[in-house]
Amino acid sequence: MEPLLDIRDLTVSYRTPQGPVRAVDAASFAVPRGEVVGLVGESGCGKTTVARAVMGVVPRSAEILGGPVLFEGRDLIRLSERERRALRWREMAFIPQTAMSALDPVYRVGRQIEEVLVERGGRSRTVARARAAELFGLVGIDARRLDDYPHQFSGGMKQRASIAIALALEPKLVLADEPVTALDVIVQRQVLDVLKALQARMHLSVVLVTHDISVVAYACDRVVVMYAGRVVETGRVAEVLERPRHPYTMGLTNAFPDLESAAGELVPIEGSPPSLLDPPRGCRFAPRCPFAQPRCTASEPPLLTDGEDHAAACWRAEEAPALRIQAAEAATWRR
Amino acid sequence: MAPLDGTVLVEASNLARHFAVPRSLADALAGRRPMVRAVDGVSLRLAPRETAAIVGESGCGKTTTARLLLRLLEPSAGSITFRGQDIAQLDREGMRGFRRQAQLVFQNPFDALNPRLTIRDSLVEPLRNMRIPRAEWDDRVALAMRRVRLGAAEGYLPRFPHELSGGQLQRVVLARALILEPSFLVADEPVSMLDVSVRAGILNLMREARETLGVAALYISHDLALVRYVCDRTLVMYLGRIVEEGPTEEVVRHPRHPYTRALVRAVPLPRVDQPRDPLPIKGNVPDARTPPSGCRFRDRCPVAVPRCAEEDPPLRPVGDGVLAACHLA
Q: Are B229 and A263 in contact (CB < 8 Å)?
């Protein structure tokens, strides 16, 4: 089946005083209907820029090169501002990291949901009011709180309200940028559960931008791993986390503490991501990769599938089973 | 809870800190002065070289506790001793000694250093404040940088903070905290602002500091998974109180307090087949101005019994070196 969103060779370049920076460089991945896709990577890897480019809200200093970004077959990049506005909220909606950017502090929360329903959805005031109450119910907030102002809400409630606003017009696609990062762990879990339940019920497609692979494991069907502006690995979550084919993904799973595995040593990936002003030649992870070979710094590996549904951009992806064994050893990553 | 060999570096007894909160008109008319008991009767001990963590959600009082322990904030009640001395009674000279021994690692490395000072100047500042002879500065700076693996050869010293990455900055922050060779380090969410791939490096350096300098550390964190890697002992706070305390592995593997159970269960795991059933906890953290009677967790507790509303459960030993403040533990 045709995916809902199909991103092909998306490149986003920022103008900076030091020169152009390709925050996203030829990124390709698809979002199937009714699935949750985790977009994971470190700060500056381009994950937020991808989400913003899809929503059509990149800053003025950014230029979108490449593409297309196909949403139900239409190229989002070529849409006029008017056509985009028609899509926003109705077809695709955004949940930001902090509800501060979604909720206006001077209006009652219920009113803000009604506004989306009336202004964007053409609903009547009466219908909008009833629907707002219903949406509050869906995200687990008492409808009596519709007349509260955002500051009267806890962080978790604000984020639930952002979800209610995003889902108000039953969009097909929701882009959520680190929607639970700012929340406490218990609230985090509760908000993720609300999002997951509604996603299943409404058969939504969700792009969940996060730095946390445990959140991906908990809430996502598929994962797209980004590094330094590039997509380095994609596939089903179980497949990618259990049998990573890119050394960066292997390193991430070592570096991340969890509550289960033996409380031994955390193994950092030495060094830090490259400057995108002057990215290294060849594979961008090569300078930090314990498995790098001369060809890795000579030319950049393409994102290739293993024939199944699992793709990696690594010259040594074929050797992944052997590399995984080495990657599990702390000594491999030590410099 | 007593450290193994009986020696104590830092001890807090019945520590409390109340903050006045803005009064509503109704409060004013009724003559009420609403207070938040951010920290309400916390006792803890830290042995030399020990690494412990206070975990809990925002508003539980963990950061206030840390600030009290460093005397960055005065307690409303209770006392703190450092090497047996009451830190409230220290004179100027005594306080200077305490400041030298007790250091803080900030959460946000981008804020922790003066942007107008070079890395070297930032490192020299504590040496100057503590009147370390100028002749020793260069050696101490070089040693501090070596400790955090920022080799002198790379020329970090003349640079300014904005020229360094977050991970490098946090290494400098750590170097600065260690430059006076303190015996007590408080780290408030030391890696939460950093990228995943560099967090482990900082945590490993902090572990090393304990080995080489014998520094005791108290981590303040919301992240149980992280705490598991660095701390021998974990204290769980809820609404201003310690509700559970014990060896980290015990607390994580066999949580005794219902709140700890929910907290542990809420942490997602990096694998696909993991429990997804609803958390054993109800509602939200109650208003800290009006905590429930008896056990403060009871209105969210899945196993609460009538007694929980009447009697405030004390923190008591429940086996395996664990203390829990629950009637049912």
A: yes
